[in-house]
Specification:
heterodimer; A: mainly beta; Ubiquitin-like (UB roll); five-stranded mixed β-sheet; 7 strands; B: alpha+beta; 2,3-Dihydroxybiphenyl 1,2-Dioxygenase, domain 1; 2 domains; eleven-stranded mixed β-sheet; eight-stranded mixed β-sheet; 19% helix; globular; binds FE2/S2 (inorganic) cluster; binds fe (ii) ion
Chain lengths: 112, 317
């Protein structure tokens, strides 16, 4: 689980689905997932602004870029919550998906 | 008289360096000022006022406010009394409160978004000037957008609780600010829920739009381009720069605009928009889209709603 390949690819495991995919060190967890056509983490703005890609890093080391505090508080960040679109792996990672596409009460009204 | 057009939007960005690269190098806006708080002001080459985008560094993405320009200073007094009469709180703030602008009316829309109305903003001029101008300036960067065209705000909508801020805003904008409803989406079992509204003051299909959602937010701000080929070229620029594209170039049913959506580096959605769709005149009948055709209303070709497009947005206050 901790081994990395020579090319700097890390494994990202989603505990929710049991699936995993490969993420290069220079791509975010979300970007690598969508580039492979994979699913599991909701994909939104890819800028740390919308919050749909929120994850909880359960194992592994990551670095993150600025994330909107509307979605990840300082306290949450300290215990491993992050936005997958702002997160680069520096080891293999095990995560749980927290964010969701907003399923609003008004979905039945056909919009949003 | 009254409201003329969108004047500017104040966006919050998580990383100013990345934001400046996006708005200046990729969209092609031109920087016109930077203040001592670090706010950056930008304008399109075809705009004549000092700025249409104000970027503010923050730890939350989204918008602080949107401002519309009125025709004359006296309009502000008249609009102030109309807003008070309607029952909203409004304050006249002194010149300079809105940077580089004269006095301004400050109030919250029924949806909770902060709005300003102003009559004067420092003049800079179009990049091509006014004497025997070229059709476009040399040295344009990236997409070379002309101007900030409109914004779309997410307004709280929860019919079972009797909440419809789309309808509340529409009523306020039409009855008080003199906007005209051009298009709407009617949802619900009997098509009685106004789930989206597009309103104009100019002769374009919309100068502002409201769409229902779970919480108030900023869906996008949109930049004008001449034509479809420019929207395609702009998407090439985005692809070259690995900008996250939400919706590749295509046509909206609503407004008939040629469109493409993408995100700035803080996750605020932008649009490049071409074609004026149609001439929206005061006597033009309102166009209504019904719930069953919402897919086509938004994405005319596929007729399918894309979940990210309708549920991903940044904060509206
Ligand atoms: S996709 Fe929007 S915050 Fe990550
Ligand atoms: Fe738009």
């Amino acid at each position: 689980m901790t081994e990395t390949t020579a090319t700097g690819n890390y494994r990202v495991h989603l505990v929710d689905t049991g699936e995993s995919y490969s993420c290069p060190a220079n791509r975010t967890l979300l970007n690598a997932m969508v580039a492979l056509g994979r699913q599991g983490i909701p994909s939104g703005c890819h800028g740390g602004g919308c919050g749909v890609c929120k994850v909880h890093i359960l194992q592994g080391e990551v670095t993150t870029l600025a994330m909107s505090r509307a979605h990840v508080s300082k306290e949450e960040e300290a215990i491993g919550y992050a936005l997958a679109c702002r997160t680069y792996p520096i080891s293999d990672v095990v995560l749980k998906v927290v964010g969701r596409m907003r399923k609003s009460v008004v979905y039945r009204y056909g919009f949003i | 008289m009254g409201v003329m057009r969108i004047g500017h939007i104040n966006l919050r960005v998580l990383d100013m360096v990345a934001a400046r690269k996006h708005y200046e190098e990729i969209l092609g806006l031109m920087p016109s000022a930077e203040d001592d708080k670090g706010n950056v002001y930008l304008k399109g080459w075809d705009e004549w006022d000092k700025y249409s985008i104000m970027l503010s560094a923050s730890d939350r993405a989204g918008m602080n406010h949107v401002a519309y320009k009125v025709e004359s200073d006296g309009d502000l007094d008249e609009l102030k009394s109309r807003i008070i009469e309607y029952g909203l709180d409004v304050e006249m703030v002194p010149p300079g409160t809105l940077p580089f602008c004269g006095r301004a009316l400050r109030f919250w829309m029924p949806s909770g978004h902060l709005m300003y109305l102003y009559a004067e903003k420092e003049f800079v001029g179009k990049a091509v000037g006014v004497n025997n101008p070229d059709p476009w300036p040399d040295g344009l960067k990236g997409a070379g957008v002309h101007w900030l065209d409109h914004c779309l705000l997410i307004c709280e909508l929860d019919p079972p609780s009797g909440i419809n801020k789309v309808a509340d805003n529409t009523r306020f904008f039409t009855e008080v600010l003199g906007f005209r409803l051009t298009e709407q989406i009617m949802a619900g079992p009997d098509h009685t829920v106004q789930a989206a509204a597009f309103l104009a003051r100019t002769t374009t299909p919309h100068d502002i739009a409201f769409v229902g959602g779970p919480t108030l937010g900023l869906h996008h701000c949109s930049f004008f381009l001449d034509e479809w080929a420019d929207v395609l070229k702009a998407a090439d620029v985005l692809g070259k720069n690995k900008v996250k594209i939400d919706v590749t170039p295509q046509r909206h049913g609503i407004t008939r605009g040629a469109t493409s959506y993408f995100f700035d580096p803080s996750g605020n959605r932008n649009e490049t928009f071409a074609g004026l769709g149609y001439l929206s005149q005061p006597d033009m009948p309102v166009i209504t889209w019904t719930e069953e055709e919402i897919g086509s209303a938004i994405f005319f070709h596929t007729g399918e709603l894309n979940p990210a497009f309708t549920t991903v947005y940044t904060e509206g206050v």
